[in-house]
């Protein structure tokens, strides 16, 4: 089969690889129909994720069709259309039982990282019954690819952790795909304001279209001044960090109101300053989270009821054999205006 | 009347001052019977709290007897014995209505800070009806002084924010009066382990007596190694920071388990490093809080029912005229083994 | 001044009454500009509320302008436009401090019940600072009358108690003004389904327009069968009872899914059967509540941000001197299709 | 093997039965070492549980040793000592994923009910990995039998659902084994009062020893009068119903304070009156629940840390061949003063 293989920092190629095989009774083999590329894949290619070794097939998102299941899998059978969660979850360990699938002792984020992933014709999914979701009848399968990672990440790490509530004021720092996913799902709770902050005019325009009540271009405005103006000089109830660098995390500290939450979504490579000398008496919370995808069933319901339209995050489409172009387009998002690129398989 | 007055960094004296007078219909004048000294008073004397100006009578804790009430005060009358909250709360502003009395727009921590405090024969209490609590019949009034600040602080900022639950594992960094208050009130929730961490052998001995299940002297042991040993190499569900310096806040980051909470109680003067490069995917929360004293009624109930004995925090007793000795004893706690010193008035 | 006075069961008249006067330092006198009639007023007139004595001016909703304030009132002054809460709250008692304003020991629902109410030219409001809300600049004051009672009631007793969440399924039994208020505010949380159940075709049509995803006319369909069909034979996560009779409460028991909530909003005059023999092992909650109006500030924000349009609940308008017609129109709602009638004062 | 078999209403016998065999890859065969009898077993014998058919081996509690595991079971192996949960849970269905194991679509309470149970030499446990718990090293295995059903039931259905908190007032109606389990586990949260209500003087004496702060014998006192006296005429924050008849459920309605919770634990055979005409405006919650045993890991921790001593619930011991005497002793609890009887196997 064809597969996009990581060959060490800066190197990848579309290679011929043997078909995956069942390795445990709980496994399933899924024939991919669509996958996508994540910012994390770019991190791996930069060499930022040493736990991902050369030879690994990349990708942790996608939809497909069950090809084969292990002896212990009873809820799926050949031919079932499934959504793949970026998080593999055994359903049995202490973490899984507490809803922290991200920390599953034999799962978590392993696809396209510690085991071969979804940017291929086929993929082996461990713990299939608790890591796959049936595609609802009549669903737009392409759109569901957004539910593998990006929408639960924006929702769980940003909106749920951020305790967004009716009437809340929210600031989202970073209007990339994850920030936009947070923007879309924050609206589930009817906040009174959602202020989007970025330095890319195109993305801010998308944000406006997606429901942001205000947009701040930090290339030309001071975010703190603007947010304070919008919130009677109080700050926001919830500041969502969706970039992953010290500067944006510090910005969130300046934006949050007493009693508010800073919900970190960004993947950080270095430490940041925490201004406890200012925050110690402000009754704030700061949260971190690797997405657990516990909200996937709920998100499927909101898609089915029409309250969430994931398709609007898709800007480009490719075929698996065009994988190099797909990476190139996604990697130069500032120029190409790419949000999510969908890869049709084969 | 006699009053302990701050005269600028390093300077204080027991002065003669005029009696306080009612300034608003919601005020009460309280004749003090007992007060105490707080670590914060030492901070003021070091010059760390510039919002406290020279000439200020210090003190924000104590019990006393109502001497006089303003026209709008109906729930207290002359002769009532009252517990004074360190936090003044109007009960009307948005923050008060949300239970964030610490951020009351006309109150908060003002006693002995922005207005004259309790280390005196008399004190004026603004917003009396929502900042004083009736002393229950038969209560040990001296012990209740511990409920003005230290016990609600340990409980709200440490235990409540830290989400201590039955079966939880808890580490408390800092066995001073506040850390010990957290230790006493954490036991309300029956955690399975409470590990106390300090470098003062005497305080660790007190902690053992107060219910710590393990004590770590960081002068002689590595706290991280020891805590990991006690928790199957997982870390604690709740790490309470009760010191207020970068080193102890960083220690908490190393102690907390995935899914856990770092509850900051300490007063910080400088920023600290936040290791987001390690914590971003560990599903942790970090909380800060200035005590709101919303838990005072509950704490009074647990004292009345015998489940909490605040008196054990008191190590020394003085009279108001011995205020200088009291400060000296409290200030040299490592030598004197002082936890809380109670000042009898007059 | 003119006032609508209750003279015992079945009797009311628009009488001339003396102007109200300040009775306590926390009082305010409000010159009414608009008020309305509540289903509860009809209950009083039927003689169902014996705690309301003849001679009482009715009404517990409305907006107006501050005429005079007591000595202890500092946050309002003459000329301020205010929204009147149907619940008077002292802000000081144990219940108020816990957000249960409905059970305020010197307040609660007293307006137009135990003290004179708002269907008059002027009204005295006790505990003014914690029972009135400033009208935001530029607000549609008429629409805000819906925030005195009906919208917080539908929201707090129905939606909040019912724990409506993104993706939830909700059934609302009763499409009167309160049921419709629950319908409007349930949408703050993006449930996947809201099924409205009534026997009045007109009200169901309004419900459809207000966002119901399905409507069941129990005159012609079996509600249980229909709801089960809509929910894969599981029942709803949240059943809101907005009528107040045993039959509708029993219907809710048949509609609720395992793990779900029955949120009672209706005012009940008699006991109902609770089928514990069916429910004991279904992990359900049943909640009751007299509105606390703790959500009023939040509702004001959602109105200001345009996420809630209360004006759509208003069907008829009258002047104070037409009070008899107003009651007649509101009392014959099935014929007149009245939802809320607004009374302009004077 | 020997097994206690139900033969229809009123009939049971200790029969010879074939050894159970693995039926699915997730099954385990457990060699029992200890089991017990539950009040529910008596209900079955009375014919109250028609879903339990003649020929069924009874029992849903116990500890034992793994004899054999199916192909999909990786976390247990032959020889492991295990605690059996009364609730079988697949860990995969929607209910299990939400922590409602009691409603597992292929599990729930099936042991000794819909499939053969634990009052036998061996038992087949479906969904073994998520329905068994490893016995901690050094544990008193006999005492752990109390964790199969009774302690999680008292804790989850009574204490957790009842939202017991530090300082709370609690009334428990019914001092049988379940009521006493609620009493023991309510103390995890340090309530200020726990009032035990029953008509059996012996059980009330046990309750006193187990930590009840007051006991009311309803044979000689009026429970409502006494509870009101103990709570300043307010009622209790939490009323736990641990009997299962209309009279005790109605008593709870009379005991609960405004804002309180009635947590139903009892198994009800008939409907009860719900006094909505009194409760509609009192902001109360009523909860029902079949135990989920989600709290088993936490309870194991509290046993290990010494905060909970389950052994004190055991009053009698028998061998499997004495099963008839064991049932007789347990069935005549008023005379024999039996709480829980432990059956040693073989």
Q: How would you characterize this protein structure?
A:
Four copies of one chain form a homotetramer. By secondary structure, chain A is an alpha/beta fold. The first copy, chain A, has twelve helices and 16 strands. In chain A, the strands form three sheets. In chain A, strands 3, 4, 5, 6, 7, 15 and 16 form a seven-stranded mixed beta sheet that branches. In chain A, helix 4 packs across helix 5. The model of chain A has no long low-confidence stretch (mean pLDDT 97). Chains A and B meet through strand 12, strand 13, helix 9 and strand 14 of A and strand 12, strand 13, helix 9 and strand 14 of B. Strand 13 of chain A pairs antiparallel with strand 13 of chain B, so a sheet runs across the interface.
What quaternary form is this?
A: homotetramer
Q: Report the mean per-residue pLDDT of chain A as an integer.
A: 97
Radius of gyration of chain A in whole Å, from Cα?
A: 20 Å
Shape of chain A: globular
- Report the span from N to C terminus of chain A: 10 Å
Low-confidence stretches of chain A: none
Q: How many beta-strand segments of chain A?
A: 16
Question: Would you list the SSEs of chain A in sequence order as H and E?
Answer: EEEHEEHEEHHEHEHEHEHEEHEHEHHE
> Residue share in helices of chain A?
25-40%
Kindly report the greatest chain-chain contact and the residue count on each side. A-B, 35 and 35 residues
Structural class per helix/strand content of chain A? alpha/beta
Q: Per DSSP, what share of the residues of chain A sits in E-state strands of 2 or more residues?
A: 15-25%
Q: If helices are DSSP runs of H or I spanning 4 or more residues, what is the number of helices of chain A?
A: 12
**Main sheet record of chain A:** 7 strands, mixed
